[in-house]
Amino acid sequence: MSHFAYMVRCADGSLYCGYSTDPIAREKAHNSAKGAKYTRSRLPVKLVYAEEYGDKSSALKREAALKRLTHAQKEELVLSPTNRIK
């Protein structure tokens, strides 16, 4: 099973970082107000970054690292040409 660290862009322009085994389904959950409390008041959200890992531990570590980045660093990562989700 694959595990992902992901980011969604909220309607207010902020970026939310999370972990999921299915980031597309997680985006749908966020948009149906069944996601994180943070995103419920900032709908809709759009998946803008997802990075796949082979194990849960690595994905959770990456999620934690993403959350420590500044907004500018997150934007740079999202806009990177190697990011396949636009």
Structural class: alpha+beta
- The succession of helices and strands, N to C, reads EEHHEHH
Strand content: 15-25%
CATH fold descriptor? GIY-YIG endonuclease
* N/C terminus separation: 24 Å
Radius of gyration: 12 Å
Q: Percentage of helical residues?
A: 40-55%
Which strand order spans the largest sheet, edge to edge or round the barrel? 2-1-3
* Total beta strands: 3
The residue-averaged pLDDT reads: 95
Count of DSSP H/I helices: 4
The CATH architecture assignment turns out to be: 3-Layer(aba) Sandwich
Largest sheet: 3 strands, antiparallel
Class in CATH? Alpha Beta
Q: Low-confidence parts, pLDDT < 50 over ≥5 residues?
A: none
Going by CATH, what is the homologous superfamily? GIY-YIG endonuclease
* Molecular shape: globular
Overall tally of structural domains = 1
What would your notes on this structure say?
The chain is α+β, with helices and mostly antiparallel strands. It has one domain: 3-Layer(aba) Sandwich (GIY-YIG endonuclease), CATH 3.40.1440.10. The protein is built from four helices and three strands. The chain has helices at residues 23-31, 37-40, 56-68, 71-79, and strands spanning 3-9, 15-20, 46-53. It has a three-stranded antiparallel β-sheet, sandwiched between helices. The termini are far apart.
